């Protein structure tokens, strides 16, 4: 515990941040607990009692929680102007060299209602359909509405707000070119302006000399700009598990370190000067590519390692990692949620822990292959679970493909750097180098494309739980270092293990909140319907899927630990209902499929029918009066359409939507599809009256639906409107007024995000993703 105190401090701070992120304890409680620990520590020190380490650990843990909460509560005044028409004055910094429409706007003033407000903030600024000159280092005034980025709108999905916070950005602004006026040259630091000029020149000249795909890939490998690569090429790298080579990371800095070291040694430069030059060049490269978390980590570690050698001090890798992580976390506590940050640190830790044991067991392999295989495998042991957690993909072929890919990158990266430097010196020599660069990059594309010929090169996986991740990482460390455990104070071991167990239980307790309960998630799919029902005994039912968004709905399911859908219900064939179902059947295993009627068809329905035919799964029609008994006390009963469908209505497809009542014990939920007035009136005539608890409001709240008589007939207490941004006027004010007059509690996807209803047989609990 005392040998590497910086590691203990870093772990405590990170745990405090993570716990606070998930639990969001009130800041007053954190202050009280932190103060109590401080007092306890003083008493323990005064009385010379054992256990001071544990008290210090917990005190730092709560300081981490306090640090995160302080950042949450620090008022960024730009939020005051959210969703208001304002004039913003600031200096543009182009975010991507390959895209002149995206900038970080360094805001200095905001004009609102004739008043001028000074502030210091950063906005992610996008210009629609912009093809003009770069606005980099231009001071502008732009008119528009500032938006606060969305938090995750569905459980466990991408949190755009958190992602931008890791970059120090708290707001966004999207506008057109005519709302922008350049008023002066900006005052960006000289080095940032120089970086932009260097990269802009390199991009233009490199793409003039190298063929399209090879040129873009050369730039991506060197600068980490994946945006410029064609999707078809990038898909090869994703499928083969080598996409990490297109983001500047420790791999790139390791190659650069060896390359520079080799040149300096051959130039017979003294060790002292060689070290200083090496550090300088490493940071020059880091500056040019941009200070991403992985770049900061890699360049800092090389600096510490070289500096330790320079002053003849022992270099401790784990302490260096902890120090770099601690500094980053203190500067920005949200940084630990950055995926690049996580993968960068875990890759180094994984190699440090597992390289030697793996290398020793690969004695039958030739030397270079043995080293490459050991390095590749050891790096993936700790990174694969995080990749699965964030991206829901596993690539078995990655272990093999990474070896030739990394070998090629080891040659290509130095060649790229020589090529880019020569662009400023002699174009003809640069073209000569580019000839060899092109050949190697072409081979890189071919090697990665091989993965497309293997049926199981990559496949989808569910996100591992936090409990699994924590247990896996702690467990592997204990197993690897079990021989050292007796040497450590047993008193402290017991306490540390107890702390970890408590943390694991607290952080993961939310996972078990819904056990043995009925859970209904009205998924936020924008302007469309999608409902996920998770039954008490673990079955999964999907009703509609919203519009088709490649990978969206399947990823939502995988992130929520769902890899099998027992029953898919398609209410009708409009694309805002059936579209997302296609994404599900392409990526998720499924059981039965039901629909209200087969009289209508569309491309999506044909695709669904073909998939069901291939899987030998018939699509069943569920007509009025038919019931599916899902499990004990849980059933799904159709009340529309009748066997004889409706014709010549305002919209026959909508009016023949599958309408069901989900019943679990005393809870009844009416799921209405897109039925309109005619279908509602027929249901009133043909279906027995009953009080229900929850209604999925018909047709996104349209005024062609939801007649007062229909609402009265079923007398719901809670209404959920599945609606997103639209031009149809949904939900209509008349519908909202009808629901409000009857005292019905209203939830909406457009304002609340996903709406989650949990029923334990006695009480209904409602949660929303956005308060």
From TrEMBL:
Lineage top rank: taxon: Bacteria
Q: Where in the cell is it found?
A: Cell membrane
The membrane spanning regions, by residue number, are: 6-23, 30-47, 53-70, 245-264, 276-296, 317-335, 397-427, 462-481, 493-514
* CC terms in the record's Gene Ontology section: plasma membrane
Q: Which residues belong to any copy of the Metallo-beta-lactamase domain?
A: 527-725
Q: Where is the signal peptide?
A: none
Pfam families in the cross-refs: Competence (PF03772), DUF4131 (PF13567), Lactamase_B (PF00753)
Descriptive protein name: Competence protein ComEC
Task: Tell me the organism.
Answer: Paramaledivibacter caminithermalis (strain DSM 15212 / CIP 107654 / DViRD3)
Taxonomy, top ranks, is:
Bacteria, Bacillati, Bacillota, Clostridia, Peptostreptococcales
């Amino acid at each position: 515990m005392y040998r590497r105190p910086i590691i203990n401090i870093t772990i405590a701070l990170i745990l405090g941040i993570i716990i606070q992120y998930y639990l969001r304890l009130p800041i007053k409680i954190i202050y009280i607990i932190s103060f109590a620990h401080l007092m306890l520590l003083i008493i323990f020190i005064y009385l010379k009692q054992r256990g001071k380490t544990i008290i210090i650990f917990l005190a730092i843990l709560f300081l981490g929680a306090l640090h995160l909460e302080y950042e949450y509560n620090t008022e960024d005044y730009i939020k005051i102007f959210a969703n208001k028409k304002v004039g913003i004055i600031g200096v543009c910094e182009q975010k991507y060299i390959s895209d002149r429409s995206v900038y970080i706007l360094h805001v200095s003033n905001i004009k609102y209602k004739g008043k001028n407000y000074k502030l210091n903030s950063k906005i992610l600024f996008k210009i629609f359909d912009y093809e003009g000159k770069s606005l980099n280092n231009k001071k502008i005034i732009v008119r528009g509405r500032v938006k606060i980025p969305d938090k995750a709108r569905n459980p466990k999905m991408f949190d755009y707000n958190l992602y931008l916070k890791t970059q120090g950005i708290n707001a966004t602004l999207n506008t057109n070119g005519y709302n922008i006026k350049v008023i002066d040259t900006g005052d960006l630091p000289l080095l940032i302006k120089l970086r932009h000029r260097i990269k802009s020149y390199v991009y233009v000249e490199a793409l003039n000399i190298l063929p399209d795909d090879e040129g873009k890939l050369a730039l991506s490998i060197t600068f980490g700009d994946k945006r410029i690569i064609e999707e078809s090429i990038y898909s090869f790298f994703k499928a083969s598990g080598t996409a990490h080579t297109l983001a500047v990371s420790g791999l790139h800095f390791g190659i650069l370190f060896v390359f520079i070291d080799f040149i300096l040694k051959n130039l017979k430069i003294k060790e002292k000067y060689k070290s200083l030059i090496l550090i300088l060049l490493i940071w020059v490269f880091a500056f040019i590519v941009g200070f991403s978390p992985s770049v900061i980590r890699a360049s800092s570690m090389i600096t510490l390692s070289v500096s330790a050698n320079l002053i003849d001090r022992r270099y401790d890798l784990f302490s260096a990692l902890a120090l770099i992580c601690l500094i980053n976390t203190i500067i920005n506590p949200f940084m630990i949620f950055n995926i690049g940050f996580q993968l960068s640190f875990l890759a180094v830790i994984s190699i440090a822990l597992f390289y030697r044991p793996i290398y020793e067991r690969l004695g039958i392999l030739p030397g270079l292959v043995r080293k490459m295989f050991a390095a590749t495998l050891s790096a993936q042991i700790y990174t694969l679970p995080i990749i699965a957690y964030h991206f829901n993909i596993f690539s078995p072929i990655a272990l093999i493909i990474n070896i030739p890919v990394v070998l090629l990158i080891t040659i290509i990266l130095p060649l790229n750097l020589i090529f880019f430097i020569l662009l400023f010196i002699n174009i003809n020599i640069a073209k000569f180098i580019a000839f060899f660069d092109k050949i190697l990059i072409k081979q890189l594309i071919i090697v990665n494309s091989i993965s497309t010929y293997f049926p199981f090169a990559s496949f989808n996986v569910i996100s591992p739980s936090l409990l699994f991740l924590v247990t896996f990482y702690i467990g592997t460390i204990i197993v690897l270092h079990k021989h050292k455990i007796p040497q450590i104070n047993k008193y402290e071991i017991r306490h540390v293990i107890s702390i970890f167990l408590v943390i694991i239980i607290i952080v993961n307790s939310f996972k078990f909140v819904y056990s043995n309960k009925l859970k209904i998630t009205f998924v936020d799919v924008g302007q469309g319907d999608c409902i996920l029902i998770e039954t008490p005994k673990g079955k999964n039912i999907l009703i509609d899927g919203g519009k088709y968004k490649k990978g969206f709905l399947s990823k939502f399911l995988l992130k929520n630990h769902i890899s099998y859908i027992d029953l898919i219900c398609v209410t009708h064939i409009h694309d805002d209902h059936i579209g997302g179902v296609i994404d599900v059947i392409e990526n998720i295993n499924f059981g039965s499929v039901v629909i209200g009627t087969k009289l209508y068809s569309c491309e999506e329905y044909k695709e669904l029918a073909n998939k069901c035919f291939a899987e030998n799964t018939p699509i069943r029609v569920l007509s009025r009066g038919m019931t599916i008994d899902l499990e004990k006390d849980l059933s799904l009963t159709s009340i529309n359409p009748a066997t004889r469908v409706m014709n010549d209505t305002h919209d026959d497809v909508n009016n023949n939507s599958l309408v069901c009542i989900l019943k679990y014990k005393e809870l009844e939920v009416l799921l209405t599809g897109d039925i309109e007035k005619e279908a509602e009136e027929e249901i009133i005539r043909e279906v027995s009256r009953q009080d229900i608890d929850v209604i999925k409001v018909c047709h996104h709240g349209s005024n062609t639906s939801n007649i007062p008589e229909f609402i009265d007939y079923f007398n719901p207490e809670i209404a959920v409107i599945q609606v997103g941004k639209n031009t149809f006027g949904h939900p209509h004010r008349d519908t909202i007024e009808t629901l409000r007059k009857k005292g019905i509690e209203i939830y909406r996807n457009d304002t609340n995000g996903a709406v989650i209803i949990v029923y334990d047989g006695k009480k209904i609990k409602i949660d929303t993703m956005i308060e």
